Amino acid sequence: PGSGHLAFVEEPEVGSFGDLKIRVDTGFRSGDDVLVHYDPMIAKLIVWGRNRETALKGLRKALDSYQIIGIETNIDFLKACCDNAHFAKGGVTTKFIEENKEDLLKLAPMNTVNVALAAITRALAKNPQEQAFSLNFSGGHTMHFLNNEGVSMAVTVFQEGNQIKVVGEGWSHIIEPCRALREGFSAAHVDGSQRVEYKPINLEKQVAVLTSSGTFALKIAPLPLGFGDVKYQAGGASRVMSPMPGKVGKFLVKDGDRVVQGQNVLIVEAMKMEHLVKAPCDGVVRFSVREGHMVGSDEVLAVLDTAVSYTHLTLPTKRIV
């Protein structure tokens, strides 16, 4: 859980459902801000069942329908707890997370179907004059998002007749639109077989698709520093952004060091937790902040000079006698 702006909140349905009772205690709604100065708890989700197995199944389903966009949450972590055999059995202790952290905290592979649907959502939003699922991009339209490790990835959308082809790094999908059964939703056949119904949401800095299995959100990769400025055309730079409001805890590399894509650059502290911030691309890091400074969400923490070549760096030499 973190602080920031709640762009969209949709809670699971509450009430009595046969052997299940579901309750949500919350004080937040869409458009509210979770401040850095207070406990980041958004809500309490309470599920009662006639036994532990029934309650856990109800809790898992309720978590799938709890949709939150705008800040990081622990919904995926709670789902992992529900799916854990030791947790399902009961009798867990305060050592449960430590003993099962590899399974509970591991990053799941990105669902490329959701990436494709999110890319289409973004492409349509960037071309509001076009009708739904009508892109007409000559040669394809390429966008850059951040993957679940904070590293930039390219996704290209092509219009092919009534179908849309979406191509990523090592994958591709054919999306064919169809009629949605629910108002406000979109639907499509994927690769000629799978049917997906989802609610598309496009925001300034991220795009999301809401499905029956939960929320999938992609952050938009920031443009290179000085994009469109002629003085930057011969070189290049990219920015390392703060994922949320917080305090710059510690630099993990020195100013002027060369880093590679995905390398940990610094730590941002927020809500009594440490958040690793990674390099979105290769380059030489130039910090824009100091350790201990308070920063806002999406504030520039460092600039990566992508135009510096290795020949410009001073490397240690070894004298041979």
Structural descriptors:
321 residues; 23 strands; alpha+beta; 4-stranded antiparallel sheet; single chain; 8-stranded antiparallel barrel
Assembly state of the chains shown: single chain
User: Spatial order of the strands in the main sheet?
Assistant: 8-9-10-11-12-13-14-15
- Unreliable stretches, pLDDT < 50, 5 or more residues? 128-134, 225-235, 309-321
The pLDDT mean sits at 83
Number of β-strand runs: 23
Estimated helix fraction: 10-25%
| H-E string | EEEEEEHEHHHHEEEEEEEEEEEEEEEE
How large is the radius of gyration?
A: 22 Å
Amount of beta strand? 35-45%
End-to-end gap = 58 Å
Largest sheet descriptor: 8 strands, antiparallel, barrel
What is the number of helical segments per DSSP (H or I, 4+ residues)? 5
Give the secondary structure arrangement, pairings included.
Blueprint lengths: L3 E2 L2 E3 L4 E3 L2 E7 L6 E2 L8 E6 L3 H13 L2 E3 L5 H9 L1 H5 L6 H10 L6 H14 L15 E6 L5 E9 L2 E6 L2 E8 L7 E5 L3 E9 L3 E6 L2 E7 L16 E5 L4 E6 L6 E2 L4 E7 L2 E6 L4 E5 L6 E2 L4 E6 L16
Antiparallel strand pairs: 1-5, 2-7, 3-4, 4-6, 8-9, 8-15, 9-10, 10-11, 11-12, 12-13, 13-14, 14-15, 16-23, 17-19, 17-22, 18-21, 19-20, 21-23
Helix pairs in contact: 1-2
